[in-house]
Amino acid sequence: MRKVVGFIPARGGSKGVPGKNLKNLKGKPLMQWTIDTAVKSGCFDQIVVSSDYDSILDIAKKCNVDADRRPDGLGEDNTETVSVVIDFLVRHDFSEDDIIVLLQPTCPFRNHKQIADAVEIYHSDSAIDSVVSVCSVDGNHPFRMKRIEGGSLVNFIDQGFEDMRPRQTLPKVYIRSGSIYLSSVGNILASNSLVSGKVAPLVERDEFCINIDTSIDFMVAELIAERHL
Q1: What CATH number has the domain spanning 4-134+173-228?
Q2: What is the pLDDT of residue 82?
Q3: Phi, psi angles (nearest 5°) of residue 195
Q4: Spatial CA neighbour of 114 closest among 105, 124, 125, 103
Q5: How is the chain split into domains, by residue range?
Q6: Other C-beta atoms within 10 Å of 225: how many?
Q7: pLDDT, tens digit, for every residue of 78-91?
Q8: Structure pTM?
């Protein structure tokens, strides 16, 4: 029987928001929002918090989920999340068919149903290799984006004209939200990536789609939590 593992990477350092994962958001540490939602989903055979920081691991234990201390060197600013996941997988005994659901603690407003939906999408089609949460780019559309070349402003996507259409009439485009990445152990190890093969989307509600990277992001999250949650 394949296991479904919720994996929450929560390092101690952060340049954009110092101590981000431990910072209080409406009465509890930021990282605990993700832990609580993962537990509430009822989807997981195991929930793991990976960190290089004792205080974070202590919170995981208080929330009755597994705390995994990552090796030195995997908590730096330039550490890729996939490296943390692969390190965890090779240090533990998993089947290639086991499922890893990565839940970044910087996305506190995913709900338990979204996690369940991601798992259901994966199980609905044997051809699916990965499930990734996305949200609409809305006004930040690639047809409006620019590059600077030789001091001149040029369209990032050259359509041969300046696209001035209202955003409502532009083709729908999505960006990874950072909230949920799902794939099998075998796919992750074979591709060295959290996203590979046939990728199915999980579309999130735009108003709650936030990935906290800066102090401004955190202030927005506080407003959302205060007014809507």
Answers
A1: 3.90.550.10
A2: 94
A3: -130, 120
A4: 103
A5: 4-134+173-228, 138-170
A6: 15
A7: 779 999 999 999 99
A8: 0.92
